[in-house]
Specification:
3 copies of one chain form a homotrimer.
Chain A lengths: L2 H19 L10 E11 H5 L7 E3 L2 H14 L5 E7 L3 E6 L2 E14 L4 E17 L2 E11 L13
Chain lengths: 157, 157, 157
């Protein structure tokens, strides 16, 4: 138990999710360090030790490019996400940051109003809490429970 | 980060949601100040700057009348809600209270046992933490992600 | 408000849920005291004062037997759970432990990738926080919102 670490990582992930849910994608890369890593994979891949990723980015610049592409493709148009996250579990406090795991459920709301359970899984995060710009993700791995890969995964989770 | 503010607002909203989920609607108005405001709107209305509301109440007395009407209409009969809320994000600490935003997902469980994802959105709250009766909502705005207006919205969220 | 109690019970329940969601069922009984009780019932039974349970165990040994049976029956094969829990509400601090209620939503993810809203309800817990092995459940009662009893309830919630 590290009450303050838990509270700060819960806050970081809540702001992260709120930014996506409010469609403020341009602010999404700012939650990462310059050389922050972002990856989406599945629990099945992790269990089998496979390094496969649906999305893999190794810098904030790559994340910015991704947002630009998403805006041009208008993929995001016509839908909203709503994340609800669990309490972070602190796995380790290391020189490179605090490792934490946080479960999530994401609902997707279409422009028509139709709402569906879209994705579930957990974040495997490495967080630098006291960087010059405050808390940032050194790494965020999104481990999806489902193997089903939706093409809409272009949108960040 | 205001760890104690976050904890107290999370507690207030958890008790608020628990009261609704346990069908103790008569206790629901007590979460508001005498002149507390309660409003349900949509993210689309907010984005367009429209002041439209599906529900708008400006006092605890109005909320009590609403509960009486609901009980007489038996709308609530035959279903339960289950809220799960995110971590509150503190937006401002002002003389009139603490402003916070909290994401939510609500499931609806019918008497038959059928369970569905019913509503998603966020609470935009203004909370007076240290009033004579403890923490109370000076204002709660429920911003729904979906534009689809269910007639069952008569029931508080 | 007991900020530290809330944080510790949220942590215990988050680890409990994470263990089930990661299919580490063999570690599940370790969250209970030797004579810990585990029960699954419905809100309807509770409201009517009925002592009916879908599952009722009165010791950690019974929980271990249950896991063995589940593994042999392969019930769990081909699906994953994902819990998201609310903020714990402290009901009482007693000699026998802290009583708390925590709402939850559980999604079920089939091997095909299909994801559904599976169960909602609340945990009525009695937690011994400072036992020789750390925090443990003296009692966990799972109160389901739905009366519909799925045969898959063999799997812990």
């Amino acid at each position: 138990m590290y009450i303050e670490h838990v509270a700060r990582i819960a806050d970081l992930n809540a702001r992260y999710a709120d930014t996506i849910d409010a469609d403020q994608l341009e602010a999404w890369p700012d939650f990462f360090l310059d050389d922050g890593r972002y990856r989406i994979t599945t629990a099945e891949n992790v269990a089998q030790g496979l390094p496969l990723s649906m999305i893999f980015a190794t810098s904030r610049a790559m994340l910015r490019d991704r947002v630009t592409a998403l805006r041009e493709a208008n993929v995001y148009e016509g839908q909203r996400y709503r994340h609800v996250l669990g309490t972070p579990l602190i796995a380790a406090v290391e020189a490179g940051g605090v490792r934490a795991r946080t479960g999530f459920i994401v609902a997707r709301v279409m422009r028509t109003g139709e709402t569906m359970l879209f994705a579930t899984g957990c974040y495997e995060d490495r967080v630098v809490l006291d960087g010059p710009d405050g808390a940032r993700f050194a790494e965020k791995v999104v481990v999806l429970d489902s193997r089903q890969i939706d093409t809409l995964l272009a949108i960040p989770l």
